[in-house]
Amino acid sequence: MRVLDLASGPGRHALLAAEYGADVVAVDSDANSLAVLEREAQRRHVSVKTLHMDLRSSQITPASFDVVLLFDYLDRERFPDFRAAVKPGGYFIAETFLLAQRQQGWGPESEEHLLEPGELLRLVEPFEVVLSREVIEMIDGRPAAVASVFAINNTGQ
């Protein structure tokens, strides 16, 4: 299984996928985070290919991955490209902050980086949504307002 972790940061999700045997590509614009990921992958004896790329402009090969992961990152204009990276029958898993995050006292504040209620569902269309949620939950001891989606590319493209 090929997994693409977009905006991977230090690779929490990429490492877990690699530990389960996936062929993982982790992409981030922060070289320091990728270096942390590479050291941790080596420590865990797993393989993760890292790519230092700017997601705002870098090309992503269409229909190349069984699973695409996107956590704590929002670029509405690139969502079609992110979805396009999922093979037919593959999965798109995403989670990021809602506008309600502003009231939590931490995290992004710009509307550019915060989802409207129901927006994540629209961004993954035409994929079939298997599971979605919008909640305020505790993350690292702090309340976080997030939207999550697990969707399948059943479009045949």
Structure description:
This protein is an alpha/beta fold. It has helices spanning 12-19, 31-44, 79-84, 119-123, and strands at residues 2-6, 23-28, 48-52, 65-71, 86-97, 128-139, 142-152. Strands 3-2-1-4-5-7-6 form a seven-stranded mixed β-sheet. A hairpin with a 2-residue loop joins strand 6 and strand 7 (142-152). Helix 1 packs parallel to helix 2 (31-44).
Topology readout:
Layout: E1 2-6, H1 12-19, E2 23-28, H2 31-44, E3 48-52, E4 65-71, H3 79-84, E5 86-97, H4 119-123, E6 128-139, E7 142-152
Parallel strand pairs: 1-2, 1-4, 2-3, 4-5
Antiparallel strand pairs: 5-7, 6-7
Jot down its keywords.
4 helices, 7 strands, 7-stranded mixed sheet, 157 residues, alpha/beta
Rg, Cα atoms, Å: 15 Å
Unreliable stretches = none
Mean pLDDT: 96
Distance between the termini: 18 Å
Biggest beta sheet attributes: 7 strands, mixed
Order of strands, main sheet, comes to 3-2-1-4-5-7-6
| Structural class by sheet pairing and helices | alpha/beta
User: What level of helicity do the residues show?
Assistant: 10-25%
What general outline do the C-alpha atoms trace? globular
Query: What's the total count of β strands?
Result: 7
> With helices defined by DSSP (H or I, 4 residues minimum), what is the helix count?
4
Secondary-structure element pattern, one letter each: EHEHEEHEHEE
- Portion in strands: 35-45%
Question: TL;DR of this structure?
Answer:
The protein is an alpha/beta fold.
